[in-house]
Design brief:
Blueprint lengths: L4 E2 L6 E2 L9 H8 L6 E5 L5 H10 L3 E5 L1 H6 L1 H17 L3 E5 L3 E5 L8
Parallel strand pairs: 3-4
Antiparallel strand pairs: 1-2, 4-6, 5-6
Length: 114
Amino acid sequence: MLQKLFSKTEGQLVTPEDYVEVDVTDAASVAGLGKVGIKIDKLADFSDTERILRELRDGSVIFLKIKTLREKDMGELKRSIERLKRTVLAQNGDIVGIEQDWLILTPEFAVVHK
């Protein structure tokens, strides 16, 4: 069934020949190439450390809010940051503190210029 479409801006008749068919499966496979995932996450407990490291290993750049754990338990925060730091440096990534409440963790292919 062929429907007649009208352009809202000009009120002109739009025919099916005015459109190009796009194969969505091809677009989906190309969309992921060359893009870097950036995640914003929160470190509320030491147990969150493993989830954050998993995201980092998957290639995401992570903006990590540490304020919650810093206010809750400074010893647990130090333990968590030490674990994050060891893993990031072992993978040739980068870890940088931003003020008192944020860390940026990057995988090997990204660098934070200081």
